[in-house]
Amino acid sequence: MARAGLTTERVVVAAADLADEVGFAHVSLSALARRFGVKDASLYSHVKNLDDLRTRIAFLAGAEMIDRIAEAVAGRAGQDALAAFADAYREYALEHPGRYAATQIRIDQSLAASSPAFARTAEVTYGMLRAYGLDEPDLTDAVRLLRSTFHGYCALEATGAFGASRDVRTSWTRAVAALHVTLEHWPREASTS
Amino acid sequence: MARAGLTTERVVVAAADLADEVGFAHVSLSALARRFGVKDASLYSHVKNLDDLRTRIAFLAGAEMIDRIAEAVAGRAGQDALAAFADAYREYALEHPGRYAATQIRIDQSLAASSPAFARTAEVTYGMLRAYGLDEPDLTDAVRLLRSTFHGYCALEATGAFGASRDVRTSWTRAVAALHVTLEHWPREASTS
DNA sequence: GGTTCTTGCCTAGACGCCCTAGGAAAGACT
DNA sequence: AGTCTTTCCTAGGGCGTCTAGGCAAGAACC
Q1: Cβ atoms within 10 A of the Cβ of B117, count?
Q2: Could you tell me the pLDDT band of residue B193, with boundaries at 50, 70 and 90?
Q3: Burial class (CB in 10 A: 0-12, 13-18, 19+), A157
Q4: Nucleotides of chain C touched by protein CB (<7 A)
Q5: Which class in CATH covers the domain with range B8-191?
Q6: Mind listing where the DNA-binding region sits, in residue ranges (chains A, B) (predicted)?
Q7: For chain B, what are the domain ranges?
Q8: In which element (H, E) is residue B59 found?
């Protein structure tokens, strides 16, 4: 019988595609095996188990996403960089809902630390904020605010939590603009009540 | 054989408790039945199926949550009201991770519209924002920004996405303070570029 | 108090998904 | 050609969802 030519890489990419189509929660080894024309037991040579597969999708998505963001941010600074970062983030989340959902799973802290994508994400994010002249611990607070807003908006938009009344893109643009103003006038740590 | 005394209400509450303990994604009818000392098929008299159960948990959680928020906001205005709203929101999400996760599932728009909790949520939220004097469509944009930040922060905190370095409560307080400033200086629609 | 009716919980069973153990054969290497 | 490695297989157990049909607990009636 001709072999399907599976590799861990191919399996994970196919799983990520499947996630984008049917939703991350509905990714199953059975469905994936069906897609390859293979029995589900065969996949266990390439992936430890379902949890391992999910983690691998998360790392794949994280790497893809930060690549797109880094490219968008390159050569920009200040509000320009922030807007580029935000739009690239949201576009990835909308284009790849399954992959994006994967990035939100709980990942072992030490495992995450060893990933180049995580380091790169921190680097790009903090780099983008450099123009605002914040120092620690303000910087961490600001990053947390940004991540929260970006993720929250995309998550809510993806689940259809926003009514259709007002254009979703416009609200996004204005939210990002508001964040820019917030960053410019960020109260320094000493002034916290 | 003595009956377990199941009702839809009791089943849903037990399911919500189970969700808080093991995570919303791991709520199963089997586990729930086990908890009641009952066969899983028995639950189908009280709940249509797993999806129905999940939706009911979501409505329960949504109602509980807005009750807590409304109580916290009552009698406050401006920054006070915003902080009370935000803290009540976050506390609920942290105390009841499973219930909170349930509120994030996709719910049929018309089904949601018929829920009193949804109307109440809109009422309380828009009421809290009254002090900032915003009109539509700015109001909708502002609500979307608030929801995004609140949800994003809680979701990231819940999945352990924030490193342990900086106190999570402090970052939250400062994020809420930043939102207050943003709302006070919200650029009116006409001035949008 | 007995009879009837409703309905709560049951058994039985189909089907899907996760995962392990062990076997067969395709393709690489000598 | 013979050997080795690796890929994919079959077989099977465990757990989860869900349906169909049955029995008996407890309420409702006489």
Answers
A1: 19
A2: very low
A3: buried
A4: 7-13, 16-22, 25-27
A5: mainly alpha
A6: 28-47
A7: 8-191
A8: helix B50-73
